[in-house]
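Appendix C reproduces, verbatim, an entry submitted by the partner laboratory led by Prof. M.T., so that reviewers can inspect both the input and the predicted structure.
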Amino acid sequence: MTTSGIHSAADNSQPDLSFAEPGIPFARPLALHGTAPLSAPLPDFFLELQTPRSAWADIGWLAFFLLSFEFIASYLLDLTAELLMGTPHSPSENNVAADRQVMLLPTISLRALGAIVIIAVLARRRGLTARSVGLSWSGAIVNIAIGVAALVVVYGLVAVTMSLVWLFWPEVVGEMKENAQRIIELVPNLRPAQFVPVAALIGIYEELVFRGFLMTRLRRATGGWTLAVALSTIVFTGLHAFDQTPSALVVVGILSLMFSLVTIWRRSIIPAITAHALFDLSQLLLLQLQAGDSWK
């Protein structure tokens, strides 16, 4: 529903919404002069009251705050690791790996908390609710079930795609093994149940930021879903390039596209969170099974 569908009861003409600046929150449904309040608020997921310019501004603010938060949080976590593990200020490569493993869950938790706070502040400035990032418990059971189904589709797409890649690039097998080793060095060897909060936090954080916030704001800023999905997928995949091999980025790209499509379809990030968390959990459990005692 767009603002063009709102009509005055007096003359059935399109009202002037020029006063509805995107930075002014509305505590109740907007009431036009001489009319009763609207029966329902505008759909936040499509950001009808936000201008393209303000959407770009919010994307910039999120990037600035997350980068600042990442720098400060990383510094504090490094100090904490030094105090807890007694590592020197310039630790060896082995100590760096050990520090990263110990601080993995606190790091992810802080990232998720920081993202939630920043996004909540930005949404409130625009008078938006949690629905503006696809957070809604309406139809949650159905959305969770769709997330499980999406995971099955993802695995099928990954299997077919990587098989085709292998035909033209046999070295992909070695790269995927290298990628598995990178994950082993990053993630501690936990009990299976302990992997659940790790996978859940990653799923919540990444889907909230990339599909819930970034993709929807890019849609408003660019005027269409196609470019929004493409740009958010490029950013999502590019950020994974710091820790993963080029062949693994193919899988990351498939995940991003699938999660984007199901989010747009359901207007909710619950399916994407479900599929993302279950994918990460299954990968960690499979890696643990394959690595055995070599995963320290």
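The chain has a mean pLDDT of 82. Additional entries are available on request from the coordinating office.
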